[in-house]
Amino acid sequence: MKNCRIGVYICSCGTNIAKIVDVEAVASFVSGLPNVVLARTYKYMCSNPGQEMITQDIKENQLNRVVVAACSPNMHERTFRNALRSAGLNQYLFEMANIREQCSWVHKDTKEATEKAIALVYAAICRVELHEELESISVNMCPNTLVIGGGITGMTAALELADAGNSVHLVEKNNHLGGNLARVDLTAPYLYSARDLLTERLTRIMNHKQVHVYLESKVTNLTGYIGNFEAKIHSLNGKPAEENKQVEVKIGNVVVCTGYKEFDASRIVHYGYGKLPNVITSFELEKMIRAGRIETKEGTIPKYVAIIHCVGSRSQEFHTYCSRVCCMTALKYASEIKSANPECYISDIYIDMHAFGKGHEDFYRQSSEAKTLFLMYEKNDRPVIHKATPKDDCEMLIEVNEKLSGELIEIPADLVVLMVGMEAREDSHEIARIVNISQDKEGWFIESHPKLEPVATTTDGIFIAGTCVAPKDIPDSVAQARAAAARILARIAKGKIEVDALYSEVNEEICSGCRFCNQLCPFSAIEFNEGKKQSHIISALCKGCGVCVAACPSSAIKGRHFTDNQILAQVDGLFCEIGM
Amino acid sequence: MAIRVDPMFIDILAPLGAEDVQLCYHCGDCSTVCPHHDEVFKFPRKSMRLLQMGLSRKIETTLEPWLCYYCGQCSEQCPREADPGETMMSLRRWLISRYDFTGIAGQFFKSRTTEVLAVLLTSLLTGIFLLYYGFSGGNIHTYDGEGAFLPSQFIHKFDLSIGLLISIFLVVNALHMWYLTMVKGPTFAVPWWLYLAQLYQLPLHFFTQKRYSECERKSKHPFYMPWFIHLGLMLGYVTMLVLVMVFIEQLQSGPAIQWSVHIFGYLASIGLITGTIYFIRSRLKKNYVQFKKSHGTDWVFAILLILIVLTGIAQHVLHRTGLYEWANIIYVIHLMCVVPWLFRMPFSKWAHIIYRPLAMYFAAVYIAAFTRREELVHSFPVFIK
Fold it and tell me: What ipTM, to 2 d.p.?
């Protein structure tokens, strides 16, 4: 390519690269190549002086292409692109050669490593010559949001967004809001009433002009892309099934907070759930507590209550994860049962007591003070419940290999409460399909990054919050709801959203309308124009993965910044014989 | 066979001192810090666990509570203020009542009123009996020799009969203890000759309280004070008991001082009075963790003992100074304290003077039997099974 003035920068990365790769040899080889104006080495290219060096060279030597041989582009591509930008050069006239992760870190021989580094840099030079100036695009951001799930998480997210003056469509499957929290009496560890937590939110949502609540409703379809989604809501809203209607709403972002379902206790056979009448789940106990009377099926007040932890959680057979809330909920039950009936003896049969975070350790201590009998069982040696004999003063006896004493013991019980863990909802895969997000092997939705992006997903504009992501307690769910709302509000405030210039385009003159690419796109970014009988790529949705480019039988699709010529030039550069 | 837990047991032990045992979450710090904890006798944590679960049938067969001398390090270390030291103490109180076949000990621990009433009643009956005896045969103005108000020959017989009576209680209770801990407890047979081989442990622990001296090793004192004073108190007590039971006639003859017996009496008095004052002072000041909580029976113990020591010294001094009437009156008061004290012995904390060295002895036998069995199992794994 004519008029190319390339600057090549080889980073030593302290000694990370320089101790294996002879960076000077790379520089001297490269400097002799046609179109290469200069080749420099530097200790840390990513440092401020390193970046300034590039900026200054561009200005002084009229460089119009830059190659940096350093670490992975994942690490610093953005850094160097910014350096180009600040020198007034289009950021896409840049290529990075990875001579650290893919070279110095994985080789031991200096000669071979240097040869490989030269090949990688040469390939980058060949490629960069063909780079074109690209401009990133921006799209409008629709200020409306769709919130799926009307539990505490969904309600919080909806209110947060609506209070900022934006319209929210809140879709709930059941005929009432509140989710799982509506089934709970008090909350651990401060014993706040769940009803109080919900009522405040409920009344505000019901009277909020900006929140549109759809009860007994489901999102059946979602099309579009970040800022410009269109959702179809199949809504009953208290009307008979014949009158069901499809509502279509335009939205900019989606928050998924579909929550969890409890583990089915009958799956653990030897707890006898479903067979022994007085073996109940935690939610059945909540129901009794809310009704104001804790009693056995026979209507008597239980003298001995046993609470078994980790039902469905922390086991190889069911779920290996900890459901996080059950330990404190169990302590809450101990406190609630004891205050309802001070004569009652409570045994708490656990694997480990997880009392993490604020207030929980104190709550655990209070429960000890109230003489809850804590008994520890081995993870793989579950307690066994059987019926007591008529001469016992209790209805059931629980046999446990008690771990802290090493004794085989029997615990008397009139009522056994199983602390059922949290599970992904059975319909979560349907939601995942509709909003195009992924699930892990347990069915939880996957975050974009487990630590740094806990509410974002790999699909732009789709956020996840609360217990549909992983088991968590109320404060964490509420925090996630607000985090998702904050992310969305930031985008709404901007009004527009920048989309990376790396997307694919269909050459409409060549496309035959075979629709082959339509099904292949992993981001649902290709729509079919029925009028023109041609496929069209929504650039905002496209991630530039290149699947459609490779698949198109008429080569009608071009991946911007990854054109055939660019890739082939790079491959040629990598494999051509270069004498040293 | 599974043992049933008893959540109510903890409520029985709470008035005996185990008020905070439910707070224990089994971190094991107490056992780590205890210099007496070993592979076979795991305490205090294990004992705390059995108590929390209410496995009383198991606890009654354990020796662990007696192997603790209550130095209090565990309670200082406990991150949850579950007070393992006091828990072990409460278990000793419970074991005393468990070994006691009459059930009196249990009543005393349960109700201070019962104990105080029993002490007062015994005291009153003793007083009436002695006054009746004294006035019917003797002269209040005579202390020793012919016509004495309370002749030492009579007191000798009186002491011996009381001694015999309490010995019966103590021996039966000790046998009960042996049965529970050495027959019912161990899962293996304990051969009889090991009892002979380890017999030296009994006097060793009785006379030296060697194990107590090993408590609080980090203590700055070369003579660990609580141990030293406790030993003095105990030796003083035993010496005095021997003097009263065997040498009372020489002891009470007068008015000349018989140095061959009286020197022991003086030494014993020093040990007794120092010890009693030290422990009363400590319990009042609560300056050390093991003195922070005092059970009602502890106070009855301390008050009776100080009264005995003071009246004993007073009658001795009055006798030698010729104030015979006063000497006789104080002597009656002295005996009114001594008799309930002696009768109380098998049913109170005092009994630990017997149970503790016995437990050390049994523990040594147990360990010998345990080791022997381990070796046997190691050599002939098939036969033993």
Answer: 0.85
